[in-house]
Write a sequence for this structure.
């Protein structure tokens, strides 16, 4: 019988937290949330997406920026791009940590409604408008574009993440 060794990552470091706050403009409470296990799972080929450490670190930044905007602009209808959303889904699956983290950030559970844009053509238009507004708020808050120029037509923000060819390139 073969012994499997599970390597548990170290908790988020104070250096990483400081980087997220100072360099990436993320609220300190949100920056300090430990998503190292989530990132480890996203790097797993079988259980996650097979992302590199660099990709999962960038996904952490994007997701934490989404949480930052959600906290700072509670009345806005914010729409995450797919990398933010993938990280959010993985965070939610760690139910205890997600519940604790939501309470720490928002004082309550942050619910995820995955059907926005699917209910009708008008709902899809509302999703598109909300996504454009999210991009505007993101750029205003973080002084950079939410989506890279070369993938600005794609809500998936998948230029370096996607394992399938993007058929929407022009």
């Amino acid at each position: 019988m073969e012994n499997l060794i599970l390597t548990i990552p170290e908790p988020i470091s104070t250096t990483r937290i400081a980087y997220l706050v100072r360099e990436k403009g993320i609220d300190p409470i949100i920056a300090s949330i430990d998503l190292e296990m989530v990132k480890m799972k996203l790097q797993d080929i079988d259980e996650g997406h097979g992302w590199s450490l660099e990709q999962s670190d960038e996904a952490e930044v994007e997701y934490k920026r989404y949480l930052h905007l959600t906290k700072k602009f509670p009345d806005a209808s914010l729409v995450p791009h797919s990398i933010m959303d993938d990280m959010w889904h993985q965070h939610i699956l760690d139910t205890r940590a997600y519940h604790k983290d939501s309470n720490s950030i928002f004082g309550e559970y942050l619910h995820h409604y995955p059907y926005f844009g699917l209910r009708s053509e008008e709902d899809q238009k509302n999703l598109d408008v909300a996504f454009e507004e999210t991009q505007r708020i993101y750029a205003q808050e973080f002084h950079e574009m939410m989506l890279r120029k070369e993938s600005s037509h794609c809500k998936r923000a998948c230029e370096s993440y996607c394992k399938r060819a993007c058929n929407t390139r022009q």
